Each structure stands twice: as C-alpha cells, then as structure tokens.
C-alpha cells in the first residue's frame, strides 16, 4: 500500500466488539520499522468518539527524492464529532533532508473564503489540536539551502484552530558547512531558535568562517567570516575578521578567495551584488568603495536566494539598440550569455546561450 512515496507492507487489522463500542488493533511495516496501534470506538449512549494509541520504532514515514524520514512515535489520538486531537512524542532517529528549492509563496488557509474580493474566515467545522514533543536522533542530516551537516535538538510543536502552527525549542547544526555564493565556510555555531512564534519564522544564530593558515596566506594567517542573526524572514548579516579588516576586504576574501586589490572587474561586480543581496550593514559603503572597478551599464540580481537560484546580471549597452549581458549563478557558478536587440514599436529579440542550451525570445513591451 503506497502513500507519500512510501510502500507500507504487512498491514493487519483485528476487531472485537464490546458493549457500546468496538476495540481494534492495527499494525504496519515500512522500511526496517513498524507501527502498532490499539484503539477503541464508542458509539452507544452518546456521540461517536474514538481513541488510538500508536507506538513504533524506525517506521519509514517518507521516502521521497528530497526527504527520507524514519519516526519512532508514542502518541495518543482522539476523534469525536466536534474535535480531534493528537499529543505525545515523536523521535526521529534517522532522516536525510536534501531539498532542491524552498518555496517562498504562502498558501491561503483552507478556512479562508473570498467574498466580494475580500478574505473572510469561515467557521471551523472540525477543529484539530496538536501538541507533540519532537526529538531529533543522532542520524538526522540536511544538505540544502547552502547548509550541510547534522541536526540535533528538540521541539514542542503545537497547533490550535485559532492560531498558527508554533514551536518552542532549539535545533543545532553540528559538524556543518555553509556555502555562500559558491564558497564553503565552516560553521562554528548554527542554532535555529523557536520561542513560541510561527514555526516557519524561527530565530537564527549562525557563525560561519574561513581560516587561512600562514602557509597558505604566504604571510600572517587570518580568519574571515559572517554572523547571521535575526528571524528567518528578516535576517541580518555582519562580517568579521581576525585580525581586523575592512568589510570590503572581508567580503573579497569570502566570495572570491583573495584580496580586493587583485580582484578583476567581473569579481568586483560579483562583490557588489553580494553586498546588496546579503543586505550587509554598511552595504552602500561597500558598493561605493567598489565603484572604481565597476564599468557596466546594468548590474542587478534575479531569482531567489532561498532557492539557491540567484543570478548576478552584468550588462553593457553597445549602442542604442544593442545590449550584451552575462548572467552568473552565484551558487553553481554557471553562466548564460545574453544578446538583446531592440526593434521598433516596443518589440525586441533576446537570445540566451549557455553550455547546456541556446534559445531566443521575442519580447513586446507596452506602457499604459
């Protein structure tokens, strides 16, 4: 019996009647683990209600290209005509999380309807309550969004019909690395903090750095890095170094791997875009300090950093009608060469060429 990318095998169900109710027992096998559930349905002398206690060890809950998760639950479920509830604890002994992208869109809740173009909350017909203690085991790994390492920690996850899904607790990334614009840094500290707010907007406390030995530096060794703090939806980045360096020099060592003095014009463009993309404190000053090595007409970012699909677009207008540009993906360092020629009456044609493909678009722009 497949579900959510998992094949559940050896499902058994046994029933036994009793006065005013029914007892049942169910078991299932998935992966190397199994679940056991014992419950009771009451239907005599009042509304129908059911209780179910579920326990298991290393049950393969998801087996998808981006997620493979085993769970060891010990939970109690309650169902009735007017409410549902799940409480208890879930241990995750093993998981491999390798997401390809993070969707930044927010779906409208099922209890929202549109009336005359305005959102209104309709009455919740069957409220469901959740209170689960989630514990991460010793074999939970993540490899995505620039992060790679092992996750540890625990959370109290709660959900109520009249509020958002919330969590309290802390997760730590250990033995990890953080890749930023194609450069891999060692994580000295990686904490995700949940303080009772929405589970999708926790606090972040991360320090990632690169240590360069005296031998490699051909002189005195040094440390450069970045501190990341704040809420996920409003992150703040702060550069640091030992010994002290200006932010422009730190950013150059982090992103292009050498001193700003020896940076090329293309690397200077990349550094300027990195400062803007990271929203660094003093980012405007960094940009101003780089203007002497910028000699392009167009410099902007396209894509989403959360999806690891950010491209720096560098362009030069050779004439009134002819534009040349180059896109540099900041995570995989792939490039796309652009040529756009402006036709008359709002039409233009643009070609894109890369080692993987070649294409062309006919573009029409109108103003109103």
From TrEMBL:
Residues 29-366 form the Translocation and assembly module TamB C-terminal domain. This is Translocation and assembly module TamB C-terminal domain-containing protein. Its main location: membrane. It is found in: Membrane. InterPro entries: TamB_C (IPR007452). It comes from Desulfomarina profundi. The lineage of its organism: Bacteria, Pseudomonadati, Thermodesulfobacteriota, Desulfobulbia, Desulfobulbales. One of its GO terms (cellular component) is plasma membrane. It is a single-pass membrane protein. Keywords: Membrane, Transmembrane, Transmembrane helix. The keyword Membrane applies.
């Amino acid at each position: 019996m497949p579900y959510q990318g998992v094949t559940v095998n050896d499902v058994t169900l046994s029933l036994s009647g009793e006065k005013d109710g029914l007892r049942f027992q169910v078991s299932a096998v998935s992966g190397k683990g199994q679940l056991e559930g014992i419950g009771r349905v009451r239907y005599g002398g009042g509304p129908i209600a059911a209780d179910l206690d579920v326990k298991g060890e290393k049950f393969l809950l998801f087996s998808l290209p981006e997620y493979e998760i085993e769970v060891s639950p010990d939970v109690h479920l309650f169902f009735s005509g007017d409410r549902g509830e799940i409480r208890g604890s879930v241990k995750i002994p093993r998981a491999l999380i390798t997401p390809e992208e993070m969707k930044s869109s927010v779906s409208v809740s099922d209890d929202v309807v549109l009336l005359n173009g305005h959102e209104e909350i309709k009455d919740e017909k069957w409220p469901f309550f959740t209170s689960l203690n989630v514990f991460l085991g010793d074999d939970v790994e993540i490899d995505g969004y620039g992060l790679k390492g092992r996750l540890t920690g625990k959370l109290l996850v709660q959900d109520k019909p009249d509020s958002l899904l919330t969590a309290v607790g802390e997760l730590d990334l250990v033995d990890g690395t953080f890749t930023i614009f194609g450069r891999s840094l060692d994580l000295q500290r990686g904490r995700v903090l949940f303080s009772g707010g929405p589970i999708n907007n926790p606090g972040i406390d991360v320090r990632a750095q690169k240590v360069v030995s005296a031998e490699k530096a051909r002189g005195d060794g040094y440390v450069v890095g970045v501190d990341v703090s704040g809420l996920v939806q409003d992150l703040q980045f702060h550069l640091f170094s030992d010994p002290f360096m200006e932010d422009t020099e730190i950013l150059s060592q982090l992103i292009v791997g050498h001193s700003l003095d020896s940076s090329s014009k293309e690397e200077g463009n990349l550094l300027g875009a990195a400062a803007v993309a990271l929203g660094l404190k003093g980012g405007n000053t960094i940009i101003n300090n780089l203007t002497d090595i910028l000699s392009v007409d167009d410099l902007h970012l396209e894509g989403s950093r959360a999806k690891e699909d950010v491209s720096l677009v560098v362009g030069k207008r050779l004439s009134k009608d002819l534009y040349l540009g180059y896109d540099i993906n900041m995570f995989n360092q792939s490039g796309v060469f652009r040529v756009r020629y402006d036709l008359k009456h709002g039409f233009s044609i643009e070609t894109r060429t890369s080692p993987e493909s070649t294409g062309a678009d006919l573009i029409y722009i109108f103003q109103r």
